[in-house]
Amino acid sequence: MNLNDITNRIKELSSNSSGKIESKIKFIFNDGCIFIDDTVNPIIINNEDKEADCTITIDNDDFEKILKKEMDSMGAFMSGKMKIGGEMTVAMKLSSLFD
C-alpha cells in the first residue's frame, strides 16, 4: 500500500470513531506521513507533517498487515517493526479508532 491508499483506508475506518482518542497522532511511513487530529469534530486526517502527542513510525507493508489483521500491533512494537514516540497511552487507544 502506498501513502494515499493508507490515508484513504484510515479515513474509512475512522469515520464513525471521532472523539475516541482525543489526541493528535502522526504516522511516519516510507513515503510520507499521516496526521490524525481527534481533538476536533469532525476528525482531521491528512498528510501534513504537524506536531502530535504520539508519533508512530512503521513500514507501509507492516502497517498494511496490521490493518488486514495479519500482524498484531503489539507484536509489531515488541519486534521493533513499529516505533512509538511521545505519549504511549495515546498509542494504546489507537485500536478504538479502527474498530
Report on this structure.
- The structure is a single chain.
- With 99 residues, this protein is α+β, with helices and mostly antiparallel strands.
- It has a single domain (3-94), classed as Nonspecific Lipid-transfer Protein, Chain A, CATH 3.30.1050.
- Helices cover 36% and strands 25% of the residues.
- It is built from 4 helices and 5 strands, in the order H-E-E-E-E-H-H-E-H.
- It has helices at residues 3-14, 60-67, 73-78, 88-97; strands at residues 24-29, 32-37, 44-46, 54-58, 82-86.
- The chain has a 5-stranded mixed sheet.
- Strand 1 (24-29) and strand 2 (32-37) form a beta hairpin.
- The model has no long low-confidence stretch (mean pLDDT 90).
List keywords for this structure.
99 residues, Nonspecific Lipid-transfer Protein, Chain A, alpha+beta, 4 helices, 5 strands
Quick structural gist:
With about 100 residues, this protein is of the alpha+beta class. The chain has four helices and five strands.
Mean pLDDT: 90
Q: Enumerate the strands of the largest sheet in spatial order, edge to edge or round the barrel.
A: 3-2-1-4-5
Class from secondary-structure proportions: alpha+beta
Under the CATH scheme, the architecture is 2-Layer Sandwich
- The share of residues in extended strands comes to 25-35%
- CA distance, first residue to last residue: 20 Å
Whole-angstrom Rg: 12 Å
Largest sheet: 5 strands, mixed
- Helix percent reads 25-40%
Low-confidence parts lasting 5 or more residues at pLDDT below 50? none
Give the CATH class: Alpha Beta
- Count of helical segments? 4
Shape: globular
CATH topology: Nonspecific Lipid-transfer Protein, Chain A
Count the domains.
Answer: 1
Q: Superfamily at the CATH H level?
A: SCP2 sterol-binding domain
Secondary structure tally: strands: 5
Please trace the helix and strand order, writing H or E for each element.
HEEEEHHEH
